[in-house]
Structures are given as C-alpha cells and as structure tokens.
Design a protein that fits this description.
By secondary structure, the protein is mainly beta. The chain is built from one helix and 35 strands.
C-alpha cells in the first residue's frame, strides 16, 4: 500500500513538473478578440501575417511588433485558407482564388481563378504550386499561366507541399476520406508525380529533416482510426510508424532536426504540441494546460526559429515559444556527431558559421553554401586543426536576400542548416 501511494505521488509530481515546464515554454500573443484565425506566416523580417476565416469577416492582418498591434493588410470579407510570403514585401493568399500582393498588403491582384486553394508553395520565387481538392496546379510565370500537374479525385485534398532542397524533390500529402490519398513525389520540378505510400492515411502535413528523411503527420486512418507520425528514411521505400498515439494536424522541423507536431482533440485525443529530439523515437508534450482542448492546425517557425502555434476556433488562438527552438552548439554532446549554427541569423551582410565535430575525427572539414533551389554558391575547405571547434565568416555582399542552406561535411558525415539573408 505504501509503494502504491509512493508511485501515485511521484506520478502526480512528474505531471506537475511537466505542466510547469510547458507553462514556461509559451506566451500567448495578442490577437483581435473574437476572431477565428485560419492561417499564419512570418516573413524574414519577423512581420506576422494572419488570415481570418470567413465567419470572422475574412481578410489578412499583419503585426510588426510581435502581436502587440495589428493592421489591416487587405482582402476583407474573404476567408483566407492559406498564406505564404517568400520575401519581405510579396504575399500570396488562398481564398476563393489565389491572390498576390507585392507591396506588403496595400493592394492585391488575382493571379489564378482556381477555386478554394488549400495549399500554396513557392519555389525559387518564380514557380508557384497550388494544392486544391482534386490535385495540384503549377505556374512557372508567377501566375500568368497555369497547368494541372497532378490530377486526383475531387474527394482528395492536397494539404501539404514540401521540397527536399538538396536533391530537388517535391512531396505532396493528401487526404481522401472515402479511401485513397497518401503521399506523392515529383523528381522533375512538379511536372509529373508518383504515389509513394500511406494510402488510406489522412496525411495532414509533411516535413523534412536535414538528412532528407521525410516525415508525414496523419490525422487518422480509414481502417484503424489511428493517426500519428510516419517516416520514410532517405533512399528507402518503406514507411516506419514512429507515433500512433496522436491525431496530427500540423508539423514542422527546425534546423537542428527537432520535430514538432500540432495535435487534434477529436474523439478521446488531446490537442496541443508534442516535440521529438531523436527523429521521432520518443515524444514530449510541451503544451500548456490550456492547449490540451485545442486543435493546433498550423505550426510555423519565425526567422529566428521561434515556434508559432495557431489554434482553430479558439479564444486564445496564437501561441509563440518564449525562446528560440535552436540551442547553443555548446549545449550538445559533440562526441555524437557534427554540430553547426550561424550567428547572427537572420543576417544582413556577414554571419559567422560555427562548427564542431568529434575529437576522434581526423578528416578535413568542408562547408558548402546553397541557395534556396539547391545551387552551390560557395565552397570552403578547412585542413584538420588541433582544435575540433572552428568558425568562419561568411560574406554575402553580392547575394540577394532570401533563404540559404549550408552543409558541413567532415569525413563523410554531413549536416545541413538554414540561414536567412536580409537585404
């Protein structure tokens, strides 16, 4: 009896400790009271754009002071299902049609008559992909001309489009509630697609880690009802289920390969946010207590990799992690692999890339910088040093602003990171 009481006491104590830690993880951002948010994006300068649902009057709002104040950014009376911003002033929004603003929301133009676009994805600032009920359309001319590149049943919706930058592969996740759906892949820029698995799983979100492993979040299965997380390791053809205890509605992976999933409260499940630091093998609930009854339908990372969580139909719809999701290089056990980060990030002209590798590695190090479409920008080679912690200044004076990636390679081991150049 004493042992039972002790176990119960320890269980309650651990629950309270976990809740206390989670409470310190998030802050609630101020949003206009009573409005339902349906989409969110943060541009490289940290400006937040939120799309409002139709039943809240629709439109786009923006905040440049972390949610303290909001300004109207257009498209009033239109429900905004999706929104993305590839640069500081250009915004794409999906409503009844696809809209674009090149002046930070002061004015908008219709660039596609596609009805009810669900997913927007911009590749190298010129190729635009729109996922709808029934397939994917592509424009190579920023909306002047369109071609349907993936045709599906009108009961199947494209929820997510992501790109493996290094290998130039596109992936799309879909849901078909009457059976079918899953994940599709394109190796030629989205011109043709092939189905690669997870049929009958309701794929809500996709994300890639720095090794090219593809993760899929599912909000259920037609036969079993269970949702969860699956991973397709790079170069493999078989999906591995690493979590079957959640209904996953959103997913994001940061530059240190930490996986975050937003969860639904449907049936007996809890909502909120979970995190994995080991490629999905174990998961931690990082939700506040108030998050457990909310559907976290959108997760995004800001320019300094703070985590934003958007809850649908909620009186407290927008959360932000108090700290960046990136930790210092010196907080990691460097004996287990390569560690790299750059500071500052975002940066304007110069940033310092710091890297570290296990002391038992005696190979030369190489850093390669790529632009957002995987083209090599610069290669830097470093002979073996006595110290295994190094740094190098990267000068971007002649480069345009945008997202860049850099690869650290030492003795056949590689790691990738993302950096944001602001001009």
């Amino acid at each position: 009896m004493k042992n039972t009481s002790k176990i119960l006491y320890l269980t309650i104590l651990m629950l309270h400790i976990n809740i206390a830690i989670s409470q310190d993880y998030w802050e609630i951002l101020n949003t206009p009271h009573g409005l339902n948010l349906s989409s969110i994006v943060v541009n490289p300068n940290g400006v937040i754009y939120i799309g409002l649902s139709y039943n809240s009057g629709g439109g786009v709002l923006k905040s440049s002071d972390d949610g303290l104040t909001w300004a109207n950014a257009g498209l009033s009376n239109l429900g905004i299902m999706s929104i993305t911003t590839p640069s500081n002033d250009t915004i794409y929004a999906g409503s009844d049609y696809v809209y674009r603003s090149i002046n930070d929301g002061d004015s908008w133009e219709i660039i596609s008559p596609l009805l009810d676009p669900i997913t927007l994805f911009v590749r190298d600032n010129t190729n635009l992909y729109v996922g709808i009920w029934g397939g994917i359309f592509k424009s190579e001319s920023i909306g002047s001309n369109w071609e349907q590149v993936l045709q599906l049943e009108n009961t199947e919706v494209v929820n997510s489009i992501v790109e493996d930058i290094i290998n130039g592969i596109l992936y799309a996740g879909t849901i078909n509630f009457i059976g079918g759906g899953g994940v599709y892949r394109s190796v030629n820029g989205g011109n043709t697609w092939e189905h690669i698995g997870l049929i009958d799983n309701y794929v809500s979100s996709l994300a890639l880690n720095s090794s090219g492993d593809l993760f899929a979040g599912t909000r259920g299965n037609q036969d079993t009802g269970n949702g969860g997380v699956f991973v397709l390791p790079t170069g493999q053809s078989e999906w591995i289920n690493v979590n079957n205890e959640e209904l996953v509605t959103s997913m994001i992976i940061n530059s240190e390969d930490k996986i975050y999933i937003g969860c639904s409260t449907l049936d007996w499940y809890w909502g909120g946010v979970r995190c994995s630091l080991d490629n999905g093998q174990t998961w931690e609930d990082i939700s506040t207590e108030s998050m457990h009854d909310k559907d976290i339908e959108r997760l995004i990372l800001g320019p300094e990799e703070h985590l934003y969580a958007l809850a649908f139909n909620s009186t407290t719809p927008l959360y932000k992690s108090i700290n960046s999701t990136i930790t210092s290089m010196h907080d990691h056990p460097v004996q287990k692999g390569l560690i790299t980060y750059n500071f500052p990030n975002p940066f304007k002209d110069e940033t310092t890339i710091y890297f570290s590798f296990p002391s038992n590695i005696s190979f030369d190090a190489k850093i390669t910088v790529y632009n957002s479409v995987g083209r090599q920008i610069e290669k830097m080679n470093f002979p073996k040093h006595l110290k295994n912690e190094q740094s190098i200044m990267f000068n971007s004076t002649n480069l345009p602003g945008g997202i860049y990636y850099y690869e650290l390679s030492v003795g056949g081991i590689r790691t990738f990171r993302k950096m944001v150049l602001q001009k």
